[in-house]
Predict the structure.
Amino acid sequence: MSSGFLSPLFFMGLANFGEYVPPPTVVPDVGFVNGLYVQITVTNYHGVPLGELAADVESVTWLLNEAGRARLDVPNPGTAAELIQFGNRVLIEFDNGLADWTGYIDPPRRWRYGSAMLTVYGGERLLKHRVTDRGRYFTRATAGAMLRALLQEQAAPPVVEIGSVWLGGGGHSPDYHFKDLYTVARDSLARLEAADFDVTGRMEGGRLRLRANFYARKGFDLADVWLLEGHNIDVGDPEEQGEIVNEWFLAGAGTGWSETARAYSSARDEQSIRAYGLRQGAEILAGVSRQETLDAHAAGNLADSAEPYLSLPFTAINLAPGRFADYGIGDRVNIELYSYFEDGFTGMRRVIGREFRPREGGCVTMVV
């Protein structure tokens, strides 16, 4: 077998001929499972390569609809002064199947015993560095169309380019006033359509190109990918999370509180109310003036809060039938647990977070 070797117990001949002999134990090739080569390319603000950074990767995180973070330990920062400047872009490439990771260096940066511990934020956080105009109004525009427009209007030089943008969905009419684009994408546009966004990077034509993408839903349902307790995952304690709110009241922009002074919306979940009792919540959205946009926000709030959700943290290793390369953020994969819940658990769950810790050889993964 190319991916491992037979345990010596297989050759001991402990059973008589004709008796049942269990299949041989295949011990994984530890060098393949835990081995890792990483290339860290650093570029300037404009994506022009400055060089490769010699650093130990402490951790790298990928998150759904959030900016991840990497921690890099540079043992000899004196020779890498140009590479570790704030604002430099970073491309981390792995040989174990994990997706390429892109971000930029920013504070905090810790100095200790002659080494520098760098904080590198995911490319999504670059969107915080650009804001909308005051009084940026949209009328019946799709979420993707609004993101494209805001990216086209960002102050030069752009922090990210326009990538693959889904333009479907309904029309919405939000207002933005000096709102940073990260908050717009995460808290407004993605919520309007229960959509997803990210920023990806790759080297093209000798430059690092960063692009913002918007998806109806990021990822796929992967029927052939299995994460099996005791084989390729070690499961932590499942936890039910989420503040339960089953009736929402929302108010839009306006100058008074009469029936006609502003738009109002409400949404409630009768099944949740029967199960947990009435739990109300309210929100004022000063940047929303259109009824259909306010209704979409109310529906999104209710979908997120009517029921608690089950969070399953586990540490994955790079073994089939769920190697690191087989799945990513947003994908739904098969999970099989035998030591949790009364009858165990088998079903599909969506990957919403990964943290790779090379020294431990595993990838802490969060699914819901």
DSSP finds five helices and 24 strands in the chain. The two ends are 35 Å apart (CA to CA).
